[in-house]
Amino acid sequence: MLRKFLREIEIKRVFLFFPLIEILTFTMVFANIIHVPADSLTIQAGINGVVDGDTVLVAPGIYYENINFLGKGILLASHYIFDNDTTTIDSTIIDGSNPANPDSASVVLFISGEDTNSVLKGFTIMNGGGIIDTFYYNAKGGGIYCYNSSPVISHNIIKNNGTTDFLLFVYGGGIYCYNSQAVIKNNIIRDNVAGGAGGICASISSPIISNNIISNNTAIGSWWGSGLGGGIIFSYSSPKIVNNTIINNEASGEVGGLGGGIYGYRASAALIAYNIITNNNSYGRFYGAGGDGGGVYILVDSMSVFRNNVVTNNWSSGPWNGRGGGIFCRGPIIILNNTICNNTAYNGDYPGVGGGIYCSNSEPLIVNCILWANTAEVDSQIYWSDGAIQVTFSDIQGVWEGQGNINVDPLFVGGDPFDYNLQEGSPCVDAGTDTIITALGDTIIINDYSGNSPDMGALESPYIVMVKDLIIDLIPSHYFLSQNYPNPFNSTTYINYGLSKASKVTIKLYNILGQKIETLIDEYRAAGTYRILWDASAYPSGVYFCQIHVDGYNLTKKMCLLK
Questions:
Q1: How many CA atoms lie within 13 A of 193 on its CB side?
Q2: Number of other residues whose CB lies within 10 A of the CB of residue 468
Q3: Burial of 236 per CB tally in 10 Å (0-12, 13-18, 19+)
Q4: How do the domains of the chain map onto residue ranges?
Q5: Among the four 59, 190, 388, 459, which has the fewest Cβ within 10 Å?
Q6: Per-residue pLDDT tens over the stretch 368-397
Q7: What are residue 544's DSSP bridge partners?
């Protein structure tokens, strides 16, 4: 299943695409490096002894510390920056379980105006309890606490932080950001616990959250409250949440659970794109409670975009009701090119409503989506009330009126793990639209697709619907590199590319460490559309990258090999 596949690639997705050694060699000529424990016995002592531009380099080991960056623009890193070995991250641990002050138990503090010159890279961050506000009696940021600061947090494992103390309401078991533009990328954030956001909490912030695996985090509401956002919560914020895997997170509480994977409240111009949101759940534990938004719960104040996400196998439930197995939304939002399938809303006393999407007091614009095999007692695919909804160019199981809508099996590749790419001959290929008119009359043009028109669903296929007299070696209007197909794949996969004019073309393959493993093409070719079969039987399972270079055009696609 998809869950099994994601577990297998979990550690492999923490990557550095291009090696940093040459860059670091250049920059470190002019910077001081403090080695821990060789030059300084503790990490904090190392930080105390450096200035902006310096590096604190930490050898593998367990460091029982709660550290503070003290506003310094420094690189705090493990030896991962040199060896690119994920086992180095596993073995370089900052453990915050023994704080000097129990009310200041976050493992890492950014509280002095740090910016993107402050970098935390290559550690396991664990067993932090957070900063406790004794007046409100809550805690924030079990693993990492960012207050009025915007650091870079990358290539870390952030796990087992937060607390299950029901007397505290914890925000951000893994990471808490307030008034922050933090860059949170390429981390594994797992097994953290909080009342609001087991994984990441952003309040009045605009963080970039990209290329992370956010898994098995829990938001548990106390006796007086709901659990909010098992994986991510953002409130009064404008986040960019892009290309993450958000899996197996849970939001539950005495009076309900909201947003098993993501909970967004009063968002403004949020972007949630290219994520896998799967196997998350929201539920209420006691009578009268319910669950909303098994995958995503989002309430927006101004136009936000939810696009090219795979939302699957999420569920919402409770003794009272379950609403929005995949997505629960309110407010103006564009739901564009998503695959929303196999989600469930159910309950005990009242019918489950909106297996795929539940819209209330909302003005959603749903375009180029696939909603299929979602289940609920009422409106299995889409439930809508109290607002203006527009659904166009989408494949929706059942009947839904609207321009370009169809009701036909999308013909996914399927298999185990389940592949939501489209088969050749799918009715969803080239069946979308590249022009969107919003409720405000604004025009949005989609241009990142291959073929004659965008496909329906999240995953653009390499296939093109042929019309009369259209030949397979059609000369395209622009250079392109399509996503390989199938993806994930077992041993062999096809790679399509196109040349708008005769050109020298180079296509190279890289492994997850950024090392070149093959050159598929390095020659002059005529204009046209080409297909390459790559046989990867000699390589292990994992993530690989295909990069095309032609006439100043560069593009990279990610490929997943699963044997």
A1: 13
A2: 4
A3: middle
A4: 473-561
A5: 388
A6: 999 999 999 999 999 998 778 899 999 999
A7: 559
The b/e string for 495-505 (b: 16+ C-beta within 10 A; e otherwise) is: bbbbbbeeeeb
Q: Which residues contact 122 (CB under 8 A, 6 or more apart)?
A: 77, 78, 79, 80, 81, 88, 89, 92, 155, 156
Nearest to 210 by CA among 275, 158, 115: 275
Q: Is 387 exposed, middle or buried (0-12, 13-18, 19+ CB in 10 A)?
A: middle
- Side chain identity at 332, as an amino acid letter? P
Starting at the edge strand found earlier in the chain, the sheet holding 256-258 runs 227-228, 256-258, 290-292, 321-323
Nearest Cα neighbor of 292 from 267, 266, 262 is 262
Q: Are the beta carbons of 182 and 203 closer than 8 angstroms?
A: no
Cα 139 from Cα 168, distance rounded (Å) = 7
Rg of the chain on CA atoms, in Å: 24
**How far is the C-alpha of 337 from the C-alpha of 314, rounded, in Å?**
18
As a whole number of angstroms, the distance between CA 176 and CA 180 comes to 9
Region 473-561: CATH code: 2.60.40.1930
Contact 2, 278 (CB under 8 A): yes
Give bridge partners of residue 147 from the DSSP assignment.
178
**Structural tokens at position 30:** 């002019």
pLDDT at residue 469, rounded to an integer: 31
How far is Cα 327 from Cα 355, in angstroms, rounded to an integer? 8
The whole-angstrom separation of Cα 486 and Cα 507 is 18
Cα–Cα separations (whole angstroms), residue 130 to 141, 174, 179 = 5, 9, 17
Place of tokens 């389940």: 418
The helix (H) or strand (E) run that includes residue 267 is strand 262-268
Q: Edge-to-edge strand order for the sheet containing 553-561?
A: 516-525, 503-510, 542-550, 553-561
- Give the sign of the dihedral formed by CA 289, CA 279, CA 306, CA 244: positive
C-alpha closest to that of 166 among 327, 293, 59, 285: 285
Integer Cα distance of 84 and 508 in angstroms: 21
Query: Contact, 126 vs 95, CB < 8 A?
Result: yes
Q: Say whether 83 sits in a helix, a strand or coil.
A: helix
Please classify residue 162 by burial: count the beta carbons closer than 10 Å to its beta carbon, then call 0-12 exposed, 13-18 middle and 19+ buried: buried
Tokens 């959603």: give the residue. Answer: 364
What pLDDT score was predicted for residue 464? 63
Residue 480 burial (10 A CB sphere; 0-12, 13-18, 19+) = buried
Q: Give the residues of the chain that fall short of pLDDT 50.
A: 1-30, 466-473
| pLDDT confidence of residue 135 | 60
Length in residues, the chain: 563
CA pseudo-torsion sign 425, 428, 431, 435: negative
Compute the distance between CA of residue 463 and CA of residue 145 in angstroms, rounded to an integer: 46
